[in-house]
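thought: fold this chain, then report.
action: predict
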Amino acid sequence: MELRRHQQRGIDLIRQSISKGNKNVILAAGCGFGKTITIGHIFKKVVENGKRAMFICDRVKLVDQALREFDALGLRVGVMQSDHWRTDPNAPVQIASVQTLSKRKHQPIFHVCAIDECHTHYKYVTELMENNSKVIFIGLSATPYTKGLGLHYNDLIVPISTEQLIDQKYLCPVKYYGGTKVNLKGVKTKRLSTGALDYDPSSLAAATDRDQKLVGDIIANFKRFGKGQTIAFSPSIKTSKKLVEMFEAEGISACHIDGYMDTEERQIIYEGHDAGDFQVLSCSQLLNTGYDAPKVETLIDLKPTKSLISYVQRAGRIMRNSPGKDFAVYLDHAGNVTTHGFPETIIPETLDENDKTYNERELTKEKKEPELDVCPRCYQHFVVRCVCGYEKPRKAELKSDKQILQELKKTNKEATKEDKGRWLAELQAYGRSKGYKPGWASWAYRSKFGVWPKGLPVSATKDVSEEVRKHITHLRIKRVKSVI
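observation:
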């Protein structure tokens, strides 16, 4: 099984990081990257060198998924899970869930350990890393935004963005539609285990239940835009079951699923949905992570979230390619797209080190998109003109030509010495905060003004303005694209 270019780049970047002395590294990659396959190739090299490797899953359900990937690579693998039929303690590669490992008195010996969905950071994992300081730990996550994650991992690697995976046909494009959404006034918030704030489930569910118009709009929009196998997210189990009843009443086959069902019942439902026995699989949050069903083409989102992790993970459920699937559909009745932006444009930049001013958004280098509007005719998100032909009224007629654009560029070159000095000081401050080499600020300055900084009146500062941050983000995105 040959590696894709971005997978090989991921391996190269991990090796470079380890060669610099980093023991705990995060490979940040969205769905469709092939994280498990990439780790499998790393494990092959580990085994060839006479060493042992461990793959830790976030939950028991994901053990068999990893096992299939490693089997395809010809690895000899043992599974640590009660009386699992693939138990083989002598195998050089072991797979286990964090729940299983944390209960075992005798811990396995390994030299390289990969931790799947590492943004869910367990106390056991912290202790494991502290007690095995010579082991190389590789965290895997599409959303490494957890508070304090940078205290446990010392490098973040981003080989490719989700948007680039779509452009290169490794993921399918998504069409986003906005519709009626629940009124969030008065809805309480609570702190998640990741450190982020999100809406309190019971408060959010109560607000949704009060909105009688919402479900009717969901059905109408689904009939108009939905297609193929579909998953739906609701604020509560009660709302999910109600939604299923509404779909069934309209002749659309649907089924509810939740974590309170036993494993066998859930598996039957998964298989039935994948086989096309019913169209809509509805839940509250069960499908948010670890759910892999490439055939799913439509996502109905009724669950507003403040959490970037929840949002990006949720959107990823419909991005996988499948035969005959030209594009996926995101029906946003929660306002999440307008709140967070397009999920494929969000790129991890840094790890939180338990900063008191923790904010998920500060950990990303999101490609800023123009402000989104919702079409009053068809509910699709658009910037200026919708695909249905609707165009938002212009506030004023602005005439522009090539000369005006040239003048904007000219303004940058004619900035005063004081302005240029401020830019250089802020770039230096940013570089120091990130541990960049001293020459980085001069390079970034030259990319802005076209010349190297010489003889500027620079006053030391710790502040970095939004204007300078936007330019830095532009440089990063440009650099990421240039190496892919």
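thought: worth noting. Confidence is low (pLDDT under 50) at residues 394-413.
final: tokens above.
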